[in-house]
Amino acid sequence: PGHRRAGSEGGAAAAPRYEVVVIGGGHAGTEAAAAAARGGACTLLLTHKIGTIGEMSCNPSFGGIGKGHLMREVDALDGLCGRVCDRSGVHYKVLNRCKGPAVWGLRAQIDRGLYKENMQKEILNTPLLTVREASVEDLLLTEPEPGCPGKCQVTGVVLGDGSTVRAGSVILTTGTFLRGMIHIGLEMHPAGRLGDQPAIGLAHTLEKLGFAVGRLKTGTPPRLAKDTIDFSGLEERAPDNPPVPFSFLSQAVWIKPEDQLSCYLTRTNLKAQQIIRDNLHLNNHVRETTRGPRYCPSLESKVLRFPDREHQVWLEPEGLESNIIYPQGMSMTLPPELQEQVIKSVPGLEKAKMLQPGYGVQYDYLDPRQLTASLESRLVQRLFFAGQINGTTGYEEAAAQGVIAGINACLRVQGKPPFTVSRTEGYVGVLIDDLTTLGTSEPYRMFTSRVEFRMSLRPDNADARLTHRGFEEAGCVSQQRYEQAVKMRAALADGIATLKSLQFSISKWSQLLPEAPISSGRRSPVSAFDILQYQDINMEILARAIPEPLGKLAEWRELAERLKIEAAYEWCVVNQQQEMEEVRHYEALQLPDDLDYFAIDASLSAEVREKLDSNRPQTIGAVSRIPGITPAAIVNLLRFVKTNHRKTEKLKVVPKSGEYFPEKMYSGKATSQRQTSAEFSEEETRFLKTPL
Amino acid sequence: MALRGAMSAARGRWARSLSSALALGATDTIFAVSSGRAPCGVAVIRTSGPGSRGVLQSLTGTPELPPARVLTLRRIRDPRTAESLDRGLVVWFPGPRSFTGEDCAELHLHGGTAVVSAVLQALGSLPGLRPAERGEFTLRAFRRGKLDLTGAEGLRDLIGAETAAQRRQALRQAEGELGQLLQRWSRTLTQALAHLEAFIDFGEDEDVEEEVLSRVSVSVRELEREIRAQLRDGRRGERLRAGVRAVIAGPPNVGKSSLFNLLCQRPAAIVSPHAGTTRDVLEVPLDIGGFPLVLSDTAGLRHTTDPVERQGVTRARARLAQADLVLAVLDVTAVAPAALAEALATLEVPPGVPCVVVLNKADLIRGSPSVPRGSPSVPSCPQGPPGVPTALLSCKTGQGLQELLELLEKQLEQLCGDPLLGSPSLTQSRHSRHLRACAAALARFSCGDTGDIGDTGDTGDTGDIGDTRGIRNTGHIGDIGDIGDTGDIGDTGDIGDTRDTGDTRNIGDTGDTGDIGDIGDIGDTGDIGDTRDTRGIRNIGVTGDTGGIRDIGDTSDTRDIGDTRNTSDTGGTRAIRDTGDTRNIGDTGGTRAIGDTRNIGDTRDIGDTGATRPIRDIGDTGATRDIGASGVTRPIRDIGDTRNIGDTGGTRPTRDIGASGVTRPIRDIGATRDIGDTSATRPIRDIGDTRNIGDTGATRDIGATGVTRPIRDIGDTRDIGDTGDTRDIGATGVTRPIRDVALAAEQLRLARRELGRITGHVGAEDVLEIIFRDFCVGK
């Protein structure tokens, strides 16, 4: 009752009220709004223009290495981007195909128009979700809820026309629009994206509230006219056949392989380097000290840091019908006429027409260390942040945060405990933990190397890791998806049990699988699961040899593939279990929110105290990942917290002796007065033996 | 008493001073006497912590601090009463340039009991000060990053060093040499890991070339080689640290205890003219030429019915089995020169353990008519068996002691190595344990085709080893401690010392296993399924107490089994060669077709061999005696003409090999000249493309042959020079591509962690920093 749909609010007398209000319609905002609505919250999405919902502001592609992992996790929580990509792509390709399934990177070139269209269709048809065009100028605030950190709580937003909307929680996903400033050459003008107004009022509000805000920059390359490019001499990259869909729900993508478009590779040469070098004085963006993305470097910075070599430029289509080509790797902020010169120096682009110059954007971001793992701000209760505003780069990083913020904004209104993902559970857990404990000084991009448990957190098993939790704890997963995940989980367990129960001698296996190089000689029986670990064996081959009972398993293509991956990584996953438990253990060791690091009596240097104070780690696990924090500091902090907060039962002792520490080492004659030996506590020992 | 008073005072203060420390946001300050126990000439009291400044100020009664790190003479006063306690030297070490990294102070006092206790009491009365806990100074230094774990261990060893060589080794370690070596390795690994990660995260469309992978492979293989070399130091560092275990052994009444007393320069052991006086094992630590020696005197080795003496003999045997060095004492008057080797053999010195023969009672020879009086060296003195250093000694007169000591020193030098030469030693078993784990992870990286890991599956509890499954084609496994349940072990080269092998079940196909070191206490090895394919197990060292090995299928080509005791129930064994001392082989069930059994040292007490099926082709069985009740021994035939092949030197081998009957097909070895010692040339088969072996006289040069197939197929490579080389053959030959880079990177992570466990250095790896420094990546 009281939930109103779009357009039904109006009179100044009664401000409309929503359970969740999301500001921004980009990749974080759409996912956040949809997730909150799926979770059952009456949700309002506020955006400058409904027509720009789902806009891909930069590259015309989704996914990649690490990013594809995030998309699978978003999808496992019933998020939108995976599904929408399966209906909008024009070139699907899995990266890292030959480097192991743990690091496969699902990726696709996306038709911008189609993506926007499909995303808007999803958003506008999501039950409980209302969309309204409006700018947000301020937040409505009130006294904080007692007993929780925060100096006030948000109760709604003030719109550009002065009207207000009341809200249970508010999610800010304003991307680069906070005091956004576009740079082309020496020119600059305020804008969030070329042609779109920046958000100034909100930036002031956040500043007034005392949020620590930093400045980042990023850039985008010029756009080229496809019909002016000579592709004939360039290296072509064809899409995969068959294409692999992003979503667990998709059986296939919408487009046939033969209808897909190719990408082309060309390279810059020294001519481009010369032009850039000669014109540095015309390039404000590059000269300034604001941290740019190392992961998304401009051509200028590549040329300056790695001179005298060629740099890759990928020519990517922007859509099926589009005449626009996105030259990935050519991000520039030179004045437009010089950009044209650089473009024409590149093979294949000699006659290319520049449709739009590249430009740099500088924008405010919020120091994400002011957020909890549920993405709620510590300063203002019920205010959540997601996406590029938190210092990340990339659609997928934004979408992943959006889902988590949406879920938690909804749970907050419902009075339920927050939904957080551990580093041991998903890339999104690593992403948010890195952001909220370490902060970032450059746009944060997901990499598989940031993930400690890469062997376990794979694209193939995101549903097994997150869908159940999403359904049971967050309520953001549809019944259909949940049932599908349950079915797959059962089938995997059955399949593995069946494979393990099929045991034959090696000689028998050699007879059964004459084509496979099974090493002879082993006499004890070997299970089919063991055999499946061989590089050259797959379920199809096994099923051909043993149709009963394996035939059925092999017929289900997705199951067969997943069984193969499970077999290949079983050893590593089992091996990582203990380590994962350690991480979970430390993640479970909560630090009190109100700890005054400058006052506590623990052996910590002033420098460490400062770091702890500015990072405000929530767990001992988070402490261990703050750079510059020594193991000793962790141990000392652990000791302090243990003795001072034992009553809280937050710190549990795990019975495990530290075999790696030579406890007798301190038997020297340094002192003789006290016989108490200065052994390390067991937590301490665990830190010593486990480099985190 | 005074001390205790100071302590309780300090404790009370400590509790009270908490609040002030809290306000300071600082840690407490510790103090302790750092020199020897009073009374003594000078006593040094150290403090560490933020209160050290205050200590100097209040004890010297002036706010003026002495200049940093300079000894200054000051009057020491009790801050409470201003009473003068002593006049002494004080030093001020402001942190971080101090031992602990904190502010430190030292008070050099007169070492009287009263002076020291008065100053300690005074210190305890100061706010924020408390007596240090044991080892707390070092602990603080560790926590402040002033030294790593190995450095701390080195420091403790330095304090505990009793001999010059120990001191040198400990000093090197305390100065951080081992830590630096490990850190260098760790950096190499981080670099390799970062490049691998770059290849994973950026490789495909972001300008990281495939060749990164091969560069990483090369550096990882190089690192693995370096670590393996370090591990092959034969426990030198550990031995030097703990002392070389030397055992005096010999028949009864040859003067073992006299030698013992002579070496430790006091009558530690009872000596009598009666044989069997010594029953228990006596032990004394000695310093010989700067090397530490733990010398044991043992009961004379003989068969006896006296239960007490028999116990003594058992203990002597046990001690012998663990010896690093054996002093075999023989009565020079009782052994004919020609029979020396035989006499030595009866002592059953474990194979591979260096031995010094001491021919005692030289004074009696001198008295004998055949030797001219006063002759410095006795011409008729029998030289020991070839290759075994021998000393002629008279315990009675001390004649020959100097020569013996020099001989021992030489042996010790070899056993302990020169602690100043080469890379720093591994002084703790935990060092080698983690290093082995590190090397194992690197081997898994290098083995490339990680698909093969699969083919051994089926491992339950892998215990300490953690990863025995999938050990395929592994060169040199070092020392292995505590093997839990082991699944399938593939091809294994050089297994080092293995301790406490738990339940080993289903060792499937063990492929080629070379040079297994000492194996102690194999628990209950039930059902070693079918080891028929165990090819070429060589040099099994001392195997103690093999529990019940049942059903060893067919261990063809098992050679050089050292000292195997209590092996019961062995099934069919073929081709056992060079079985050192095999005792108490219980019920060998159906031992059939013992192929080419040669040089079975001293086989006795082969209890009940039951139905020994035709033993054929026994080569040179050496001294086989007491094959007691061997039941039905069927005809032994075809003892080939293998005996003299042993030393064919360097010529015409092909024909002679032919005569040996048992030599399996040797195919395609290019030039067969100069095969050298062909007695040991056991099955060289399937050396794939051996065209280029060329001159096999220098068998070590095989290492240089270009195209060689995987080691596996070389069969038995024992006598092709050092097997160390064979690993490199595999490596230089066909390198299989890494198929799952993510798995390979995981191995590097594991390896890095093991190194970190040795030094205690942990911390987040900054792989990304390296990636962005070394590669132009990003879109």
Automatic annotation (TrEMBL), chain A:
Alphabetically list the UniProt keywords.
FAD, Flavoprotein
How it assembles, according to the record, is: Homodimer; forms a dimer in the presence of potassium. Interacts with GTPBP3; forms the GTPBP3-MTO1 complex composed of homodimers of GTPBP3 and MTO1.
Mind telling me which GO cellular component terms the entry cites?
cytosol; mitochondrion
Free-text function comment from the UniProt entry:
Component of the GTPBP3-MTO1 complex that catalyzes the 5-taurinomethyluridine (taum(5)U) modification at the 34th wobble position (U34) of mitochondrial tRNAs (mt-tRNAs), which plays a role in mt-tRNA decoding and mitochondrial translation. Taum(5)U formation on mammalian mt-tRNA requires the presence of both GTPBP3-mediated GTPase activity and MTO1 catalytic activity.
Question: What name has this protein been given in UniProt?
Answer: 5-taurinomethyluridine-[tRNA] synthase subunit MTO1, mitochondrial
| Gene source species | Poecile atricapillus
Stretches of Polar residues bias are at 669-679
Reactions the enzyme catalyzes:
5,10-methylenetetrahydrofolate + uridine(34) in tRNA + taurine + GTP + A + H2O = 5-taurinomethyluridine(34) in tRNA + 7,8-dihydrofolate + GDP + AH2 + phosphate + H(+)
- Gene3D superfamilies per the record? FAD/NAD(P)-binding domain (3.50.50.60), GidA associated domain, C-terminal subdomain (1.10.150.570)
Under HAMAP family, the record lists:
MnmG_GidA (MF_00129)
Q: Where is the composition biased (Basic and acidic residues)?
A: 683-692
- Reply yes or no: does the keyword ATP-binding apply: no
Which terms does the UniProt entry file under GO BP?
A: mitochondrial tRNA wobble uridine modification; tRNA methylation
Q: Which cofactor does it need?
A: FAD
Q: Does the keyword Flavoprotein apply?
A: yes
Q: Which residues form the tRNA uridine 5-carboxymethylaminomethyl modification enzyme C-terminal subdomain domain?
A: 567-639
The family assignment reads: Belongs to the MnmG family.
Q: Where is this region: Disordered?
A: 667-692
InterPro entries linked to this entry: FAD/NAD-bd_sf, GIDA_C_N, MnmG, MnmG-rel, MnmG-rel_CS, MnmG_C, MnmG_C_subdom, MnmG_C_subdom_sf
Molecular function (GO) terms for this protein are: flavin adenine dinucleotide binding
Which SMART domains does the UniProt record give? GIDA_assoc_3
